[in-house]
Amino acid sequence: MDILPILSTLKRHKTAAGLIVLQVALTCAIVCNALFLIFQRVERINAVTGIAEKELVTLSLSSMARVENPEPQTQADLAALRQVPGVVSVALTNQFAYGRNSNNSGVRLTPDSTQSSRVVAGHYTTGPGFIATMGLTLVEGRDFEANEFVAGSTLDNNADPRVPSVIINKVMADRLWPGQSAVGKAIYVYGDQPQRVVGVVRDLPSPNPGSQDENALNTMMFPVQPSFRGGNFMIRVAPGADPEAVLKASAAKLLANSPGLRRVIRDQDTIVKLRAAYYRQDGSMVMLLAGVCVGLLVVTAFGIVGLASFWVQQRTRMIGTRRALGATRGQILRYFQTENLLLTSAGIVLGMVGAYGISLLLMSHYELPRLPLLYLPVGALALWALGQIAVLAPARRAAALPPVAALRGG
């Protein structure tokens, strides 16, 4: 179709055409960035941690009086929890994914404490059975052996602590020793003596999953068992058992397991609920941005429909003349569709420039990554389709006008 007549007509309606172009441009710029942010949030919410989340519950206690030697009570608590119906395994840890604590340490590859850390990593201290309880997968090496575990309280009182071994996650292993086996390698975290890497787990989530900080991807665990006073009991529930019921029974068991020592439950919850609470703001952001996208697209569609309907009324004589001269309904329909395509394309070009500008603004103020170029053609296709759908009804009404009725309407 010859577009010169269409351009000539649009020049006579510059204001209306310009408003539609600006509306499409604004929608394109905002929707492209909003879709990028939505997919980022969805990817974060659906991130795989590698732990058996649906089978894990956690609880922690506080004692009302100081306990000089908490290890015997800690061992008694672990034994008591293993007797609770529905409990498969239990272990102690200083922190866990979606929890309130976040401990990190610098990692050196030499004993020289004056040198800067090679990386920063999440610092887990764990008791026996932690890997099995959490459902972690060893991809290299072995688990900690019984003679490698050190009591946390003993370590705290030692000026030069001795921790023989460490297990790290795959991300950290690849970062420190790319293309090499990490097993047997030495790192320095505790004192001047090295901790030898005895195993590598596929996944060990950060206490704050989804962080944009590269160091948050590095995690490591040491055979340093916390006591009941500062540790968190991680309990793995048998498949088919009710986690809430097991959690309630476990809390009651611990409170009854310390005659003469008054204790209170500090925190208790399922990992599933903790994850839902952790990502609640992300979910709300996804819904908000999705609402903005839908709202903008609806407003733009109504704008196109309104303008096309107005132009059909204004051009009744022109349509009638063209129909009288032999123009088919299909040609009239394509005329309005082509006109809309030109306006939408102009708006999309401006919108892509705006989308890139908004992306740079978000990068500088909120440390967000650059908008991938893939989102620009996706946004363009969506707006082209929206424009063609929105203009279809007014265009079909124009094409349906008979020549005589159209001429009389002029």
Task: Report mean pLDDT, rounded to a whole number.
Answer: 87
Low-pLDDT stretches are none
What's the shape? elongated
Overall SS class = alpha+beta
Specify the oligomeric state. Answer: single chain
What is the rounded distance between the termini? 25 Å
Counting H and I runs of at least 4 residues, what is the number of helices?
A: 13
H/E element string? HHEHEEEHEEHEHEEEEEHEHHHHHH
Counting structural domains, the number is 2
**Largest β-sheet summary:** 7 strands, mixed
Strand tally: 13
What percentage of residues falls in helices of 4 or more residues? 40-55%
* Cα gyration radius (Å): 32 Å
Strand fraction band? 15-25%
Describe what you observe in this structure:
The protein has 410 residues and is of the alpha+beta class. Helices cover 50% and strands 16% of the residues. It is built from 13 helices and 13 strands. Strands 3, 4, 5, 7, 8, 9 and 10 form a seven-stranded mixed beta sheet that branches. The chain has a four-stranded antiparallel beta sheet with strand order 2-12-1-13. A two-stranded parallel ribbon has the order 6-11. The protein is elongated. The protein starts with a helix and ends with a helix. The model has no long low-confidence stretch (mean pLDDT 87).
